[in-house]
Specification:
about 550 residues; mainly beta; 12 helices; 37 strands
Length: about 550
């Protein structure tokens, strides 16, 4: 495997910024708290530095426990609806254990020790389980009385604890209310331990028919000795105003980020093979990048026009414009905390991208048609670089016209070095009028042989459920188009990470199972986003020839390429 290297920077300038992760901690006298985590959630600068208070991110989910050993030969059993071994697909109603608590049957979904915080909770139910639901209980620091005790339909996707944008259903509308993913992003910190249970089985155990509880919880673990103010309903009530303010920051962009307009161009034509270049100098950080293009074939232009960025001479970003801004290769408006496209086709990214001395940003036309840059604006602010500062990185690849009669792990990216995974997106073309995405995410951190993040399905990973094609857009998830969900067509899914970012100190490997139940070919294009310290490497190379290929617009484009 060949890796693209980021050469090491040899010296650093000391710095202290009150607007990074530590700001929220120091505001609470050095403790992690609900309030500090809310501030961190809405602080884009926080992800651009290695956290001063380090943490690891784990996941507890209902993945099929028959998946024990990575055996690629298990993928040959493609005719089985439920898969086999490493690709087993009964990803529901699996728990750590079942307890009898005061006469109640409680299935344990999460049980972790040490200081930490739940930072994401996704759930959906099927069959009798949906009809009856059940009670979620969150026990903190060994207290036998739960800090949270609420019906799952009120806790996730409704406003029983907190409303949008922290708790929501994706999509909002569906033919059947069952067919939606339920999400909760309100952080739930704890000092000593946290246990989450589901009490519902007894309500539907006597009913005939299928029942399924799917879930995934992401949680942080801090080093022993880290002081954490554990969650209480009283603390939540005291933080209601901050919750409101944070929600507004997550959903309302307001004025452009960055005090300095460092580079701009309007109505500039890029001939095939040419590029626009912006050179930035000084210790600074890109805070906002806005791009709008025009071409006869806009779909092809969004794929063949590529954003290339080097920081301090190190190439870290190579990604087609469409996927960098989360819209695949179509004009599909959506708005997340980090990227957006409006109805006029203006694309905006608000990632914080720091550099020590210089940055080189290019928008290059790899296609065979002229592309007009109707607008490019690069806005920056000062940044004091230090030993915790990280470069923003982005990669893209396409698995073109792949056969799916053999289930396998498709690699999104592999990184060697120190950094933080902060997002990804997937654009694909499905050639069959049914579902394409039974595959689970598998994320390996720092040399793990078994993934610490093992999911329950591709759409579950992206925040929705049950193959739904409807549009949705929230701060950390969006589906600009789901036309290829249970239909022939294009789908574009986005997931961006805030508190659920995944730090790694030596390596990260991100796979997604390619698991099409109907064994039909498709074109599959993931992009990944992460921050990395100088010296990191990645396995995904720039692919100029790949972005020149005609984009897939109809079934025959895939079939004829086999």
């Amino acid at each position: 495997m060949k890796f693209l290297s980021i050469s090491a920077t040899k010296s650093f300038v000391a710095f202290c910024s009150a607007f990074l992760v530590s700001a929220g901690l120091f505001a609470q006298g050095g403790a992690v708290s609900l309030e500090s985590l809310l501030r961190e959630m809405a602080n884009r600068d926080a992800l651009a530095s290695w956290p001063e208070v380090p943490y690891t991110t784990g996941q507890a989910s209902s993945y099929d426990r028959n998946s024990k050993t990575n055996n690629p030969e298990d993928g040959a059993d493609a005719q089985s609806r439920w898969g086999k071994g490493w690709f087993a697909n009964k990803d529901f109603s699996h728990y750590i254990r079942t307890e009898d608590n005061n006469g109640r049957r409680e299935d344990v979904m999460l049980d972790v020790k040490g200081p930490g915080a739940i930072v994401r909770f996704w759930n959906t139910l099927g069959g009798n389980a949906y009809k009856y639901g059940g009670i979620i209980r969150v026990y903190i620091d060994g207290n036998p009385t739960p800090a949270i005790e609420m019906h799952n339909k009120n806790l996730l996707g409704s406003d029983g604890l907190v409303g949008e944008p922290f708790s929501y259903m994706a999509p909002k509308e569906a033919e059947n209310p069952v067919w939606r993913g339920r999400n909760l992003f309100l952080p739930i910190p704890y000092q000593k331990s946290c246990k989450v249970t589901f009490d519902g089985h007894g309500k539907y155990a006597h009913q005939k028919g299928w029942s399924a509880m799917y879930y995934a919880l992401n949680y942080r673990t801090y080093p022993a000795g880290t002081r954490v103010e554990s969650f209480t309903m009283e603390a939540l009530n005291q933080a209601r105003e901050l919750v409101k303010e944070t929600g507004e920051r997550l959903t309302k962009y307001g004025a452009p980020r960055g005090e300095k307009l460092a580079a701009s161009v309007k109505d500039h034509t890029l001939a095939p093979g040419k590029y626009y270049r912006a050179r930035l100098k000084g210790s600074s950080a890109v805070k906002e990048l806005a791009v709008k293009i025009k071409a006869d074939n806009m779909e092809q232009a969004l794929r063949s026009t590529v954003l290339e960025i080097s920081f301090d001479g190190e190439k870290t970003v190579w990604c087609p414009l469409g996927q960098f801004f989360g819209t695949g290769y179509q004009i599909k408006p959506h708005s997340t905390f980090n990227v957006a496209m409006d109805s006029a086709g203006l694309m905006t990214a608000r990632w914080t991208m720091p550099f020590r001395k210089k940055a080189d940003l290019r928008v290059r036309n790899y296609g065979d048609q002229p592309v007009i840059l109707e607008k490019v604006e690069v806005r920056t602010d000062d940044w004091e670089w230090n030993e915790n500062s990280m470069y923003f990185c982005a990669s893209w690849k396409e698995l073109r016209s792949i056969k799916t009669d053999y289930r396998r792990d498709g690699n999104y990216v592999e990184v060697k070095g120190k950094g933080v995974l902060v997002g990804d997106n997937l654009t694909l073309f499905n050639t069959h009028p049914d579902w394409w995405g039974e595959g689970d995410e598998k994320i390996y951190v720092d040399g793990e042989t078994f993934p610490s993040h093992f999911g329950t399905g591709t759409e579950d990973y992206y925040g929705y459920a049950w193959c739904r094609p409807q549009f949705f857009s929230y701060p950390f998830h969006s589906q600009p188009t789901g036309a290829g969900n249970k239909a022939v067509g294009i789908t574009s899914n986005n997931r961006y990470r805030g508190l659920d970012a995944v730090p790694f100190t030596s390596s990260l490997k991100f796979d997604m199972e390619i698991w099409h139940p109907f064994e039909k070919p498709m074109t599959y294009s993931p992009a990944c986003f992460w921050y990395a310290r100088p010296g990191a490497e990645r396995n995904v190379q720039p692919d100029p020839e790949g972005v020149k290929l005609p984009v897939t617009m109809k079934k025959e484009d895939v079939i004829n390429s086999l």
